[in-house]
Amino acid sequence: MLFEKRDKEITEQELEQIKGRAGCMVQMFDEKIADPQKRLALVAALAGYACHKAVMKETDMTLVMVELKDGRTFYYGDDLNFFLLENKYSVYSFIKGYLDVAMGRPADLDVKRIVAEQTETLGKLDKKLCDVYFPDGLYREMKECWDGIFENMTAKICTSSRQWPVLFSVVLQVVMRHMEGDPVKKSVQALQTAIYISKMDEKSLIESSEKLKKDTEKQLYLFLQKGEIIPLDTPSETFIRRSIDMLRAFFKENEMEFNVSSRIEDMVKILGTKMRIHDEPVDIYISLYAKTKVAAIDFICPFKADMFRLNELCQTLVKLNSGRLTGMFRLDPNDGMLSNTVAFPCHEGLTRDDFLMAFIPNMKALSDKMEILKSFAR
Fold this sequence. Notes:
This protein folds into 2 domains: about 5-205, no CATH class; about 210-375, Yope Regulator, Chain: A. The chain is about 50% helix and about 15% strand. It contains 13 helices and 9 strands. It has helices at about 10-20, 25-30, 35-55, 80-85, 90-105, 110-120, 135-155, 165-180, 185-200, 210-220, 240-255, 310-320, 350-375; strands at about 65, 75, 225, 260-265, 270-275, 280-290, 295-305, 330, 335-345. Strands 3, 4, 5, 6, 7, 8 and 9 form a 7-stranded antiparallel beta sheet that branches. A hairpin with a 5-residue loop joins strand 8 (about 330) and strand 9. The longest helix has 23 residues, at about 135-155.
């Protein structure tokens, strides 16, 4: 049933204008994302995200927020469904239009079942979208894309916020036409992804949960292990000086001893320490890059990977990394040592919260997955 919001629906003339301008965006996705399945997931996610962004922009529309037990929140509401499912040019309408043409007859997507399934699985850690992304990983990639193209593409193609979902639905329809494979499966996956991501924002991510942050912060203090202190040689750059002062205070507060080294030519300070994660000693290195004002945390796992199982190992690390750990895993081909790296920009310096939100969730995730990593030891 359509809501009585006809003034929010775009006209056929507006639709034709969007179609005429969307070619550059289609070309960009074709060129930038080689994997068709990942392309489908990203564009469907953008279409879903555009729905709740449009609701936020419209002054007479509202979102309903539902909080899970772990503190994460998700979006619901009739106004969200208007752009997503229930108007003439909704995301669902474009997906259904593609499927009808592909099948040569009116097709039934069983939208009520799909909506119910996505709602029931909100927040589940083992959920996957389009068979390639965990929701948190897809959301981050989608959000980075949205921010990167909004000013130069989205805002120039669309004349109002209510056109945003239509633009990405047009692109999604073309992406599905260009893909090989079962039209029904593609349509179901696209709709599932759009629905799920339409309900997400930063507060729905695992690492954003205040409860999770507090629980893992307590565990952090149990994993500390003392090391050796080396005299500090602080460069003059304000970013480095303030960042090291903050980290030094944090380490001392928690009885963590550390050493400091420098790569003068790269203007990098490296703070090293040790901790135990599930009784396994792990080396931790925090690198502060003065030139780019970026901080990076490296968790060096104590296991040497079996290089003969490299392909299996890489597949396992990809699964662990998608939606479970921030940053990326690396495997040193020289000695087979495993490391997880988290990097983040620090435009105004490194704050305690920046450090905790990058450090603690990865420490907890590594703890949970330590047995899997140990299975790759020689």
